[in-house]
Each structure stands twice: as C-alpha cells, then as structure tokens.
What does this fold into?
Amino acid sequence: MEERLETELKSVPATARTTSAPKILTPSRLRSPKSAAAGTVEWTLTSYIADVCGYTVGYLLGSGKPYYALALLGLILPQVFFQFKYFLKDPVKNDVKYQASAQPFLVLGLLVTALATSH
It folds into this structure.
C-alpha cells in the first residue's frame, strides 16, 4: 500500500504537491506598481464606503430621523479624515493603520443605523 502511494506521489508534479495558504484580497494586492490605474483603486475603495454612508444619512433624513442622521454624519467624518491621513497617501504601507483607525467608526455607524431603522 505504501509503495503504491509513493509511486502515485512521484507521478504528481511538484507544483501540485505543494500547498499554499489562500491569499486574502487586500488593497495592497490589488495595487500593482506597473498598473496604469494604480491611483484609482484607493479612491474607488474609499469612495464606496463614504458614498454608502452618505446615502444612508440621506435616507435617515428623508425618513424623519435627523438626530440619527446627524450622529451617523458625525461618525463618517473621522472615517474620511483617516482615509486622507493614512490610506490615500500610501495604501500599501498604511492599510492596517487605516483599518484600525476607521473601522470602529464604521461599526458604530452600522449600530446607529440599526437603531434608527428599528425605531
């Protein structure tokens, strides 16, 4: 049995035998130094976050919940500040700093939105 496994293993190419951990898609992996659109990836990623939060503020204002909208707007401003301070300057170097700084405000914004829509 062991001999059969050894012969089968030898018939498999070496590249197929090696296992590698799956690569996580991060902004640093999206950005290639040779890419012509290297600067647009950062702006696209950060604008998605800000746009969705802005639309949510508009929804809350339209549904008659201005205090929740104001609280959410107050949580968006630090996210935008950290986007400019860390992520847009050098996304490869400052990706973790940006996530650690802006993520708590995003999560609190989700909580404020959940509270606003449940009342």
Observations:
- The CA atoms of residues 71 and 112 lie 7 Å apart.
- Confidence is low (pLDDT under 50) at residues 32-36.
